[in-house]
């Protein structure tokens, strides 16, 4: 199983970053290149534009450690397994803002490079979106 980890600093404080992340039905405000999003209970459907639509199960939203997890259930990539965890962490010592840690476990491994590239684009979008709300 492939594991992809991205950890990055953002200008928003922990509370602001968490508020943006926990608004799971508005992920397209955080990752601005995403299309429309619908939320039906714990199922989030995201329009990925030219890539098609994905359906995710929101597995957990935990305010105390500021941790949210989801799993892709349907997608053009036909994952055998996909599980993702996003956490908001305190800033590095001496820094301001906060940090985001994003972990994705997936199968098949052959999709890891393509998914990592997409994550890198999402990271840049999140940095810009969270800088705009501070």
Quick take:
This protein has three helices and seven strands; from the N terminus they run βααββββββα. The chain has helices at 14-22, 27-30, 112-132; strands at 2-10, 37-40, 43-47, 53-62, 67-74, 81-89, 98-107.
What features would you describe in this structure?
- This protein is an alpha+beta fold.
- It has a single domain, classed as Alpha-D-Glucose-1,6-Bisphosphate, Chain A, domain 4 (2-Layer Sandwich), CATH 3.30.530.20.
- The chain has helices spanning 14-22, 27-30, 112-132; strands spanning 2-10, 37-40, 43-47, 53-62, 67-74, 81-89, 98-107.
- Strands 1-7-6-5-4-3-2 form a 7-stranded antiparallel sheet.
- A hairpin with a 4-residue loop joins strand 4 and strand 5.
- The longest helix has 21 residues, at 112-132.
- The radius of gyration is 14 Å and the shape is globular.
- The relative contact order is 0.27.
- The model has no long low-confidence stretch (mean pLDDT 96).
For the terminal residues, how far apart are their CA atoms?
A: 37 Å
Quick one: CATH superfamily? START domain
% residues in beta strands = 35-45%
Number of helical regions: 3
Mean pLDDT: 96
What is the overall shape? globular
Give the helix/strand class: alpha+beta
CATH architectural group: 2-Layer Sandwich
Low-pLDDT sequence parts: none
Query: Sheet with the most strands?
Result: 7 strands, antiparallel
Number of domains: 1
What is the CATH C-level name?
A: Alpha Beta
**Would you give the CATH topology?**
Alpha-D-Glucose-1,6-Bisphosphate, Chain A, domain 4
Report the helical percentage: 25-40%
Q: Taking Cα atoms only, what radius of gyration do you get, to the nearest Å?
A: 14 Å
Give the strand tally. 7
**Strand/helix succession:** EHHEEEEEEH
């Amino acid at each position: 199983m492939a594991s992809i980890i991205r950890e990055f600093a953002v200008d928003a404080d922990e509370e602001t970053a968490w508020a943006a992340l926990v608004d799971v039905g508005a992920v397209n405000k955080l990752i601005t290149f995403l299309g429309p999003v619908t939320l039906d209970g714990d199922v989030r459907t995201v329009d990925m534009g030219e890539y098609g639509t994905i359906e995710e199960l929101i597995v957990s939203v935990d305010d105390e450690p500021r941790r949210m997890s989801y799993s892709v259930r349907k997608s053009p990539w036909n994952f055998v397994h996909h599980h993702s965890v996003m956490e908001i962490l305190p800033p590095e010592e001496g820094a301001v803002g906060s940090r985001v840690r994003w972990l994705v476990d997936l199968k098949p491994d052959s999709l890891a490079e393509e998914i990592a590239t997409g994550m890198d684009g999402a990271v840049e979008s999140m940095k810009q979106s969270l800088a705009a709300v501070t």
